[in-house]
Amino acid sequence: MPQYRKKPVVIEAFCLGIDDMPDWFCTKRSRGEIVTHGTYDTLMSCDIVTLEGTMHAERGEWIIQGVEGEVYPCKSSIFMETYEPVAVEMPKSAV
After folding, report:
1. 93: exposed, middle or buried (C-beta count within 10 Å: 0-12, 13-18, 19+)?
2. Contact 43, 36 (CB under 8 A)
3. How far is CA 23 from CA 1, 7, 12, 20, 44, in A?
4. Starting from the edge strand earliest in sequence, which strands make up the sheet with 34-37, in order?
5. Any idea where the domains of the chain sit in the sequence?
6. 28: three-class secondary structure by DSSP
7. For residue range 4-23, what is the model confidence (pLDDT) as tens digits?
8. Dihedral of the CA atoms 38, 80, 6, 72 (nearest 10)?
9. Looking at CB atoms within 10 Å, which of 43, 45, 63, 85 has the fewest?
């Protein structure tokens, strides 16, 4: 049977309730596409409207923005097995 490898794709992600919420998350939240539970300082969970239905994420899980702007949750253990940090290159003018 043929086998396939996932193409390397760079995504944006943050750890819910641990990292600061990025602008793209806040924008979808203000549109009602994401509902958060808890306060800004003690964010405990969220519900994300996706094409597959509403998905729930708990504090400590990763929230991913995919290549087409789609947002979805990912369990921490799966995230760590699937993704690795990408080195951000500084523009030459900043050096």
Report:
1. exposed
2. yes
3. 43, 26, 11, 9, 19
4. 34-37, 45-50, 53-58
5. 12-86
6. helix
7. 888 888 999 999 999 999 99
8. 0
9. 85
